[in-house]
Amino acid sequence: MFAKLKKYNFSFVNNQKIKFMKKIIATFLSLALLTMIAGPSLTVAVSPNVNTGLTRGSGGGDIPVIKAKWEMKGPCLNGADYIACPSVGEGNDDEVSAGAQFDAPGVWGANMNYTVCAIATDPDGVADLAGVYADIYYPEGKAIHDRTPSTDVHRDTARGTQDIGVEGCGEFIEENTLHQLTKAEGYHLFCEEIRDNNYNLPVFSEYYDYDEICAPDGELMKEEAYVYCSDKDLIWEDPAGDYKVNVFAQDNASNNSVTLTNYFEYMPFTGFEKDFSSVSYGQVMLNTHKKISGDLTFGNGIPSIRNVGNTRLWMKVAQDDMGLGQSSGIWNVQYDGRVGNNESDWTNYDPFGYKGTTPGSYTQLEDIVDLSELEEMDFSILVKKWPDVNTSYIGTMWLSATSAPFRNCVD
Fold it and tell me: In which domain of life is the source organism classified (predicted)?
């Protein structure tokens, strides 16, 4: 029994040693493997800690920044949602000159749609931006309406009467809230469409340009700045000229950014519509003025015209001789015309040439047709000699227009 016991104890001791040796070997292997995997980082990590810190906001903070701004053809949004200007394309205007230039619609009652945009950031984080705003102003030095009826009884400058007006004249139109685009929408619009296709459209604040704003590590890409836009419009009768746009941002502490200003041009368009296709003088007696009066109802065929442009205008007229010819180098027929019903506005004119020819010159008529104004046109004829025994004569009248000065602003 003793022999069996000794044998048993000996076997137990040997097993314990073997287990101990296995643990030592396993430990060394684990350390070696750890050193192979993590060795380089362990050897270079002198200070693995990163310091952090902040400064408590005291209600002030740094002011927001407007980096760039521009206007482009619109509409580009559906409410507050950007829809990439589907009818006009992104980042476009109507001329190649620096800044934005927009054509007038030239249609009674129509609008010219455009979109105001800006890129804004805030050193305290874009979450601190309370809003981005655009203030729009009429062109300087261009009045829109009569000051009082008595100042414009005779409302033309061609004959020396001073036209005085009110409204317009650089006055404030309205303030608008711009809507934030997504990162992808803003970057595509500014850094791809505008930079690549309409490079001189925006105006930049000092220290900023395309390279800074569109950099791969720039604030647009890092979502530390965003593009903001809003749709606007001018109507067909708003005066041609340079409209001022001020853009600024405001943060949650009511700090305003420095205002960034530029101008866009509503390009001049002089145009009119008429509602008549013929003027019949009816029965005309020799050496007797026969007058044909228009009216102020547009569309009934009785002569009237209306201004569909964004400038004031003078009407111009030309007529051939209707086949009445000349005697001793003097025309046998004389015409008169006017716009409106002021007696002093009648203007007489001779035929420009014989029937069958086209006019080389026109006669300018009084009065000035104001923005969106509807006016009657009156005509008269005086036959001084019948050239033959014909009982009827037919000719052609041409109408045109030229721009007239805007009303003068007063303090």
Answer: Bacteria
Residue 151 is given by DSSP the state G
On the question of a cis peptide bond just before residue 105, with omega within 30 degrees of 0, the verdict is no
- Residue 19's pLDDT is 45
Mean pLDDT calculated for residue range 397-406: 96
**Cβ atoms of 177 and 135 closer than 8 Å:** no
Q: Is the pLDDT of residue 381 over 60?
A: yes
pTM > 0.90: yes or no? no
**Torsion 388-394-395-401 (CA) sign:** positive
Under 8 Å between Cβ of 214 and 191: yes
Residues 6+ apart with CB under 8 A from 185: 82, 84, 227
In whole angstroms, give the CA distance from residue 139 to residue 156: 21
Torsion of CA 136, 141, 142, 144, to 10 degrees: 80
Q: Are 251 and 130 in contact (CB under 8 A)?
A: yes
Q: Could you tell me the CA-to-CA distances from 348 to 7, 159, 187, 318, 331 in Å, in that order?
A: 147, 15, 62, 11, 13
Q: Residue 195 is inside which H or E element, if any? A: helix 195-197
Tokens of 296: 């102020």
pLDDT tens for residues 27-80? 444 444 334 434 444 444 556 778 888 764 555 679 999 999 999 999 999 999
Other C-beta atoms within 10 Å of 376: how many?
Answer: 18
d(CA 331, CA 352): 10
Domains of the chain: which residue ranges?
65-266, 272-409
Look at residue 267 and give its three-state secondary structure: coil
3 state DSSP class of 269: coil
Distance, CA of 180 to CA of 190 (rounded, Å): 13
The residues near 210 (Cβ < 8 Å, ≥ 6 apart) are 191, 195, 199
Query: Strand pairing partners for 134?
Result: 176, 247
Please, which residues bridge with residue 291 across strands?
380
Backbone φ/ψ region at 59: left (φ over 0), alpha (ψ -120 to 50), beta: left
Q: Tokens for 382?
A: 């005086």
Reply yes or no on domain 272-409 having CATH 2.60.40.
yes
Which residues are paired to 337 by β-bridges?
A: 347, 379
Residues in the chain: 411
CB 399 within 8 A of CB 317: yes
The secondary structure element, H or E, covering residue 33 is helix 2-44
Contacts of 215 (CB under 8 A, 6+ apart): 221
Cβ atoms 220, 117 nearer than 8 A: no
